[in-house]
Design brief:
Protein name: Transposase
Keywords: Coiled coil
Organism: Thermoclostridium stercorarium subsp. thermolacticum DSM 2910
InterPro entries: Homeodomain-like_sf
Radius of gyration: 28 Å
Number of domains: 1
Strand content: under 5%
Number of strands: 0
Order of helices and strands: HHH
Amino acid sequence: MILLYTRHNFILTPEIAAEYEIHPNQLSRWKAEFISNAGRVFSKETDEVEKVKQAYEKEKDELLKQIGQLSYEVNWLKKKSGRL
């Protein structure tokens, strides 16, 4: 969150560092590290989102299959109970 503030020109790094009681050099190092590794951060998020989507789709397909099976069984039982 702090690093996002440093991306705006109207807020200076020393001001942010003072507000959060962080040394300006440390904040600058964090900023440089974040910028150099930003691609990794967002690709990991994308990978995690894809994994969650795949798990959701798999569960959805299984539930739809189960609904279909249960609907078939209910209809079959209704037909059989009508014959008795």
